[in-house]
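S., here's the first fold you wanted:
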Amino acid sequence: MTVTNEGELRAVYRPPAARAAQKVLDRLDIHCRNFIALSPFCVLSSCDASGQADASPRGDPPGFVKVLDDRTLLLPDRPGNNQVDSLQNIVENPGVGLLFFVPGMNETLRVKGKAEITTNVELLALLTVGGRPPLSGLKIEVEEAFLHCGRALIRSRIWDADAQIDRSSYPTYGQVLADQIAGADAVEIDADEDEANRDRLY
């Protein structure tokens, strides 16, 4: 059976615990701020005007997402492939979600809000790493924030060293793209990625 409405959904799941709704904040409290300050990695979700969704990993030294005030975040857009998928979505639809991770912690922090793309020089200066500010940033108006329980990360054992794969069990980035793109050269792609990862992170 395909679930098509809330009534059918609630027939599958029991009502949520009262605290599930009570914990949702409309601003960033001290615990949210501290979590973001400790976080070196988050996932940014967005969707275009037609509802096509996307999720993009973002990472930098801990605290790379700046808390401007209890309702405003500033997220850098670092150099990448210049497809700017997330930014194109935000031009069409400002609604975004953020999922923050802290290495070694099983809990995550979820934030929802509205984003706008900024090229304000003073704001981008706050995001400078190694003397290089980003080309743009996302100024995010926070609408909801809450701490998510640790069960997903506990089940995945994501932080356990003995859960890490032997890297040789999966092809390199270049090998994958060479299989997917006609005429692509795996060695050349891997060499370019190595150079970019070494010299063009910022």
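And the second, which I think is the more interesting of the pair:
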Amino acid sequence: MKTVKETDSKVIEAHSIVNRCRDEIAKRIIGQEKMVSSMLMGLIAGGHVLIEGVPGLAKTLAVKTLSEVLDVSYKRIQFTPDLLPADLIGTMVYRQESGKFTPRKGPVFSNIVLADEINRAPAKVQSALLEAMQEQQVTIGDETYKLKAPFFVLATQNPIEHEGTYPLPEAQLDRFILKLSVGYPDMEEELEILNRMGDEKEIPVSKVLNPAHIETLKKTARNIKIDSRVESYIVSIAAASRPVNNINADFMHYIEFGASPRASIFLHRCSKINALFNKRDYVVPEDVKSVVHEVLRHRIILNYEAESEGLTTDIVIDEILKFVQVP
């Protein structure tokens, strides 16, 4: 059995690895600490991350920088209406010299995949990506190929442009462990962006994270302790989002569909990682509150009444947090 001292040393080591990664990314990305931390959280949690924000907020640059900080393979796929599944996963190619069909693997066979403007591709392309995201495998012809770990999809989309887009189906949205809403920088941060990036000078970053480091972070996060009362708190939050439970609360009138048990699992997992980010080997309710919006934002579906009153999912999540008793 591990002692508290041994556990603490592993948490401190993992915290140091994360900070080195953050420091490298901060050479290029000014501000946006929440986005950077959430991308790292998704990587450690073994999930995928959907990043939503208007153009020009460094979403693509942040993903590219993360890929350069990690010693892994990286591919960027620009999603467009004419994209085909074969452009994503690959296809069978006839080799005249051998007289046989052989697989030509697509860009999805990478450790980090940036699906840029993911909602611009039709449903059949999104479905091809769904197998890779959920099963960590790709089927080409009659053969199924396992994807190398880590396999991490970061997708971007623009929330204000709907012409020529294909909304992601709920099944695919649910495969993203986190949905980030990226906002504008403040004036001081924007001034620093001008000073650092205005002359288009290339800012190099170093590779400080390799697959072994990622496995260390995952193992350490799994060993973070969580009290049964905090686990009950997580389940209560998810349950409070479900109309089928007939909860007597005003916010329930605005919810069409609530969060599934997968939301509870991801909230549990991300709360542990948040504790790790805060150099603790145990979870507190504040860790749950810190990640709950990113985990539930795309899993709670509001009705037309909420839309007519200008309510957002984040506002409803705030009401759920007020309703559920903190342990």
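Why I say that: The chain has two domains: 4-215, 225-323. The domain at 225-323 is CATH 1.10.8.80 (Helicase, Ruva Protein; domain 3).

Talk tomorrow,
H.
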